[in-house]
Amino acid sequence: MQETVLLPLIVALPLLGFVLLGLWGRRIGEPAAGWLASFLVLGSFLLGFWLLLQGGAKWTLAEWLPGIPFSLRLDNLSGVMLMVVSGVGFLIHLWAIGYMHGDAGYSRFFSYFNLFIAAMLVLVLGDSLPVVFIGWEGVGLASYLLIGFWYTERVNADSARKAFIVNRIGDLGFLLAMGLLWSMFGTLSISELVEKVEAGGYSFTTLSLAGFFLLIGAIGKSAQVPLMVWLPDAMAGPTPVSALIHAATMVTAGVYLLVRHAFILHGDAFLAGSIVALGLLTAFYGALCSLGQWDIKRIVAYTTLSQLGFMFVAVGVGAYWVAIFHIVTHAFFKALMFMTSGSVIHALGGEQDVRQMGGMRKHLPITHRHGLVAALASGGLPPLAGFWSKDAILAYTFEYGPWLWALMLLASALAALYSIRWYVLVFLGEYRGKAHPHESPPVMLWPNHILMGGALGVGFIGLPYVIDYKNFLEPFLSKAIGEFPHEKLPVWTEWTLIIVSALVAIGVLLWGFRFFQQPLPQWYARFQQAALNGFYVDMLYNTLLVNPLKALAELLFSADRGLLGGFAGLGSLMGGLGGLLARLEAGALRLYLLGFLLALVLLLLWGVLR
Amino acid sequence: MSVGFWEMVVLFLLVLSGLAVVRLQNAVHAALALIANFLLVAGVYVALEARFVAMIQIIVYAGAIVVLFLFVIMLLSAANANVGLDLLPRLPWAAALGALGLAGVLVYGLIRYQPAANPPALGGGLPQALGPLLYDPEKWLFALLAVGFLLLVATVAAVVLVEPERILAATTHPAHPSQKEEKVEVGP
Amino acid sequence: MIWLLASALLFSLGAYGVLTRRTAILVFLSIELMLNAAALALVSLARLTGSLDAQVVVLFIIAMAAAEVAVGLGLIVAIFRRRETTNIDELRQLRW
């Protein structure tokens, strides 16, 4: 691992784009602004890839804060994340060149987008927790700016605020974790923390508490139950934002954070149990909600929730490399799913309601191919990307407990169901709307071609051991995460699990394919009504938390108003006095002189009597 | 504190001329009373061993400055002190009270003042004694230069204040205004 | 000592004049009286302490008074040209 200044350059490139486009974006104009932003991200990708091939890199600015260096570190784990963030990020940038065409805020969009990439890279590469936190808040800020990108509509601005405020709860957890770790070990550098945790000599309960606070942080960023309410509303932003930030990269930051701190989590039954429980809840909640949505982007948003739940379960059962594996495959197929949805929205002139879609197979043949691959990969059809990562998670859950495996199998069956529902509603049947669909321009098709390739093939870097005894990803990541040995399942069990999950996926996909093309039965409509409203969680939060707090705020505000009124009265009293005094100053010079004389006499008197 | 007869007379005349300066209604008379006051003060200076200062008092103060006053009074035809608006007709009472208070405070301070028993003689305050002090770099030389510069600035300022338009015109078109103006129009 | 008394009285008289006079020139004249009273105080103190420095300062006061009168009278003449008056009660720009 070498010390090199090229590492901060990876972050600096998109940051440069942010500054350039932020200051002179209007002058650079369309489409140059989009291309500039895209190629800066590509530059980050290539530089990061080259450094990763060199065996990683690190860079330190000593004494950035008293006792805390500013350190970046590119190891295999952050390297994989870097590839995902900048690689998928580059493709989405390209796609956005077409999608954002003609928008009044074109260059502003790309400047925010570059800011996001820069912040995300800081988050991923940071070796010191405060540095990670800068990235953590930076992506939150970029997310806020981009959700509220079309800020002239109140709904969008409100959604942006909601995302920001809910994320604050998670950030508080992160801060508490940092403070606790600092007080325990006197350092916040992750690589030093690893050594100190290994060395021992501290209270395990306190460390467990620190891990719990980190978990709260991760929950906020990764939209797990109970802080998941912001993610569906975050779809108010432009579709590329949903694809990049709220599907492929930022929401996986929580998972990444947990994997980075696997050395804290590992072997702690309570933490593991909480993570598994939260992940499981989220997986089911997201899947069930997704089945009831009509807005195409909300459908995909809830599927993201469910997939994030899968990642959390993976972390909880100790399958850290699998969680990252799923982040990678998910980045491909979910970005593809979002961008396909975006292409459809684009083709229909902004229509987002799936009831006004359908029949896109005939109208948009190329996009249809992308959508089909995305749905099948997301649904877990072998041998597409989603199948392998999901199967790896299932295998680990079986080690944790067969009951968990059964529940996760059910969750993945639901995942297959929502994927196929999305596909059927958008692409099959007859077109139900009134617009004139047109296929997307090449600048939007080519990124999707590449992502489609990824969704088809990226699963092969992490095959189960019964097929590929030493796959690429597991040893590669373990170098950075740490070796956590586990007993491999017997060969026949592993094969049974693979075949069962494949059969379930194929079966559910086929069943859903038929089910959603027929008129829906009564019970499904009732279920759909509840799911459409996210099972009334928002309403519950409003009743239990938001409204009481609002009432309290109103109360305090009226008290404030009384107090401020008093002060304002005091102020106007003083103002009146001043006005009275000002009337003395009417320009009569000799009166002023009399004042001089009086003051002189008094001063002399004081001097003489002293 | 023993006070001689002539000292009393001079004190009386000083106050009388001062009163005349502030009370006489004809400005020319007031200015003349000020000259009288200055000449009396010059006499007092001689008695206080300050002969050079006394000469300067007569030449500069009584001679030049007050004559300048007289000149301006006549130039502006401002001999009558009682023209125009009076915003504060009852101010003189307050002014008298204030002046009395001031005098009272000063006199009270004076009573408590204990001078040194036998001060050294000043040698009559002749230029031979003052000159070395004035031109001593460690004493007053710098102040002397500063005052000289102040006088220069004041001279220029007085001229500029009274004739601003003509001076400005002269600085922008130094030689022959009419001819220059015709040439200027040729330029871009 | 008696000349210090004379100085105090002249100074107070000057102050009275400054307040009661309404013509700018006469106000200025009263100020000269006050300045002269200060000079008188300095000369008497020079005699009482036996130091020539105070007399040097009086020389400076006289020189400075000359400069002040030149500028002050110039101001008065300039104001008179604009406003046709030197009555300070009619010159009321110095206000809120």
Descriptive account of the structure:
The complex is a heterotrimer of chains A (610), B (188) and C (96). In chain A, 74% of the residues lie in helices and 3% in strands. Chain A is mostly helical and 610 residues long. Chain A has three domains: 1-127; 128-518, no CATH class; 563-609. Chain A has a three-stranded mixed beta sheet. In chain A, β2 (57-65) and β3 form a beta hairpin. Chain A starts with a strand and ends with a helix. Chain B has 188 residues and is mostly helical. Among the domains of chain B are: 1-79, Four Helix Bundle (Hemerythrin (Met), subunit A) (Up-down Bundle); 135-174. The longest helix of chain B has 25 residues, at 51-75. Chain C is mainly α and 96 residues long. In chain C, 79% of the residues lie in helices and 0% in strands. Chain C has three helices and no strands. The longest helix of chain C is centred in the last third of the chain and has 31 residues, at 53-83. In chain C, 59% of the residues are buried. The model of chain C has no long low-confidence stretch (mean pLDDT 87). The chains are: A mainly alpha (610), B mainly alpha (188), C mainly alpha (96). Chains in contact: A-B, A-C, B-C. Chains B and C meet through α1, α2, α3, α4 and α5 of B and α1, α2 and α3 of C.
What's the SSE pattern of chain C?
HHH
CATH class of the domain at 1-79 in chain B: Mainly Alpha
SS class of chain B: mainly alpha
Shape of chain B: extended
Count of helices of chain C? 3
How many E strands of chain B? 0
Low-confidence residue ranges of chain C: none
The largest sheet of chain C, given as strand count, sense and whether it forms a barrel, is:
none
CATH architecture of the domain at 1-79 in chain B: Up-down Bundle
Supply Rg of chain B.
24 Å
Proportion of strand residues of chain C: under 5%
* CATH topology term of the domain at 1-79 in chain B: Four Helix Bundle (Hemerythrin (Met), subunit A)
